[in-house]
Amino acid sequence: MEAVPRMPMIWLDLKxxxxxxxxxxxxxxxxxxxxxxxxxxxxxxxxxxxHFLQSRIPMGNGQDAAVPVTWTEIFSGKAVTHxxxxxxxACVLYNLGALHSMLGAMDKRVSEECAxxxxxxxxxxxxxxxxxxxxxxxxxxxxxxxxxxxQECLLEKSMLDNRKSxxxxxxxxxxxxYYKEACRxxxxxxxxxxxxxxxxxxKKLVQMKIYYFAAVAHxxxxxQAEEQQKFxxxxxxxxxxxxxLNEAIKLAKGQPETVQEALRFTMDVIGGKYNSxxxxxxxxxHEAVPALDTLQSVKGAPLVKALxxxxxxxxxxxxxxxxxxxxxxxxxxxxxxxxxxxxxLRDVMxxxxxxxxxxxxxxxxxxxDPETVDNLDMYxxxxxxxMEKCAALSVRPDTVRNLVQSMQVLSGVFTDxxxxxxxxxxxxEEDEAQERKLQELLGRVPPAPGxxxxxxxxxKECSKYLELHEKASFTNTELHRAMNLHLxxxxxxxxPLEQVRAALPTPSLSEDDKQVLQNLKRILAKVxxxxxxxxxxxxxxxxxxxxxxxxxxxVTTDRSEMKKLFEEQLKKYDQLKVYLEQNLAAxxxxxxxxxxxxxxxxxxxxxxxxxxxxxxxxxxxxxASYEAYEDLMKKSQxxxxxxTDLEGKAAKLLERARAACQASEAHRQQLLER
Length: 674
Known about the structure:
Serine Threonine Protein Phosphatase 5, Tetratricopeptide repeat; 3-stranded antiparallel beta sheet; PTN23 phosphatase
């Protein structure tokens, strides 16, 4: 519906309090509360303090400190007195429910669930013989009325929020179910006699609402049929809604004008829907209109509940004003209970520690780290240390060229020196050969006086330079070998990152290998989940034990009942203990599965270890090549400096050798001419 018409709601009168002769401190505001939510808060606080008082002083029926408590009965107006503090509590609870019903009937239309909760607690925890207005039948009636009205408010909100038609229909059907339960109670002769004259008024309103909300339910079932393009069903649902609304209108005679307006508005909506649907089906769709009883009935959706009442909830009662009234016996019993809790904790912790020790030893023997069990992620990117070297070379694009050029210059100088020394050696060897020929020709006589002395010095110096060259040649060869070793790596590091990534080894796993890995990781995750859950449960147990203080309960418990109370209170730990036992019992199966998975993982683990070793070696080699660059450049420069100096000396020695050989040749010619 485009708007949501509102129906009036039933609310209950509050009981009036008489005198309470002993509790002179009973707050006047608690028995004559303001009609607002602050009044509800006052009643809850007073109810809690009554409970605290009852737990310390024997004020119940037939007990030593019992005093007369008087309240009026709602329907007759008569004063009813009982010597029982629980009667005071029951009347306060009734007023709490009645006040919530009153507030719920106001414009904000809230708190019916609170009213239902108060009446439910009163019905289930207190005697029904105190007064007629707190009998089982009346309280059950009140509960159904409040739940129906709470569901009615939810229906109103759902329609305003434009919730799905089928959900709105189910919510409305549940309103009907609650009101039918209330109507059955109102039609009961015993209940009718208890209620008196208001029974007829309530019954007429509830019966009218039953038909009205049944009409709303079928209206929305028709809208759902329309959405599903079931045009025959749409007609019968709208027709049924119209029929039920007409019944509601008949029952609404004598109701306020607001009710009549709501019915007229709803009639406009449903009537319009029915006429339009029937016309469309007659002239356009021509679908058969099924009988209503052949369609599935609308099942109610109970989305409200009686909100539970906790008389001792500190959030509403405030501090216990009788807290200091704790007998010594209660303190002693509290110490005994603490020992029971400590024993429970010791037993549980012994089991946990034993299982943890087995688990730790097992995992140590496996040497499996869940974080790095496959290392596959490391192969998907270039490691930071290598990225750093690539970045450094990217801003020095001439690195490789400079190194190559430096080594080429070194090779050139090296070659020049070697050529000069070889020529000197050849000159000396030629001179020696000519000298031998001369000796043979002259009959092996000693060299004639006056032969040039410079050749011996040249020969000596040449030998020294050849020795230096030979030593440096080894160093030069090693330098070139090192350059050739690192040059390719430097070119790689200075190139595209894709090539660097491609140069790094990566594992090649089959689908079976991947499945083995995934299974192992899954079981390792189970192990960690088991550990985490175990720690969490242990922490919950410790916190629960630490906060567990039953001193208040012990105050009113007889010594003979202490053991039974302890047993009952310790049951609160049973669920946690069950969870812990399940966790500990699961360890054996988890570790067995892990053992099996590890056996299958052995071959994969070996292959991954080998690839990881190669990967680390490659990374280290590339990093070493980058770090060797500066050393290569330095040694290349030192080599150039050495050979440049040696080249100069060799060049001078070559000139001297040529001159000495020429002089020696001239001397031999003189000897031959004699």
